[in-house]
Structures are given as C-alpha cells and as structure tokens.
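User: Please fill in residues for this 150-position structure.
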C-alpha cells in the first residue's frame, strides 16, 4: 500500500510540475520573438514527453496489478520462499535458486502468462529490474492476446 501512495504522490507532483513548466512555455510563446518562441516550444516538449512517460508507466502498473489480482484469485501467486538476511534483504543464492526454478517453468510453458508473471517476480527479487519489466510486459501481452514483444 505504501508503494501505491508513493506512486500516486509522485505522479501528482509530476503533473503539477508539468502544468508549471507548460505555463512557462506558453508565456515564452506569447513574447513572440524568435528566441522566446524557440525556447517556448522546447519547454512545451518536455511536459509532453513527461506526461507520455507517466501515462505509459501508469498503464503498465495498472495492468501488472490486474494480473496479480487475477493470479491471486486463482491461487497462483508465487510463494515467498526466499531466505533473508537478519536485516530483511533477500539472500542472493536463494534468489538465484528460485529464479532458476521460475526460468525452467517458463521454458516449459512459454505461452503461459502466469509463468512469465512469476518469472518477472523472480527477476525483481534478483534485483534485475530491466528483465523483470520485460518479463512482465510479455506476461501482459500474453494475457491480453496481443503480439508478444521480443
């Protein structure tokens, strides 16, 4: 729950920032000189890119949460079988062992979104965020019946 609150607070701050930057860009455009119009357009591009990035990430999180809810209803969420240090960190060898199990499961059923979801969780536990994201994107695409990213 804390992660959701943090995400929405960060998103709200970004939206306010986009509005402020956008208003500065409009002010520069209203000045009407070649230099201020050029800067105004450049300043307006930044919030557009930021808003697009925020939208895509929000969609990703929403879809991943939808899959987690569905998998939980089926009783298929991965069980936390990680060994942890006294400080609560995941032991690297434990994460590697669970990852190997999830990877084998995914290789046996490459078209099952559930396996890809569990593999994404294993990647995340192993602190490999880029691969976790790609595995989750693949799980989402398989679930939705869309073309699978390579």
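Assistant: Residues filled in for all 150 positions:
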């Amino acid at each position: 729950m804390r992660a959701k609150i943090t995400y929405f607070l960060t998103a709200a701050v970004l939206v306010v920032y986009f509005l402020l930057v956008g208003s500065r860009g409009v002010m520069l455009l209203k000045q009407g000189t070649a230099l201020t119009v050029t800067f105004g357009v450049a300043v307006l591009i930044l919030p557009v890119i930021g808003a697009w990035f925020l939208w895509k990430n929000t969609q990703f999180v929403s879809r991943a949460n939808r899959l987690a809810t569905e998998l939980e209803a089926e009783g298929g969420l991965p069980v936390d079988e990680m060994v942890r240090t006294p400080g609560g960190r995941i032991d690297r060898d434990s994460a590697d062992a669970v990852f190997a199990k999830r990877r084998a499961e995914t290789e046996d059923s490459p078209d099952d979104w559930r396996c890809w979801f569990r593999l994404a969780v294993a990647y995340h536990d192993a602190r490999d965020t880029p691969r976790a994201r790609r595995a989750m994107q693949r799980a989402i695409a398989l679930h939705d019946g869309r073309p699978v990213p390579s």
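For context: The CA atoms of residues 19 and 47 lie 8 Å apart.
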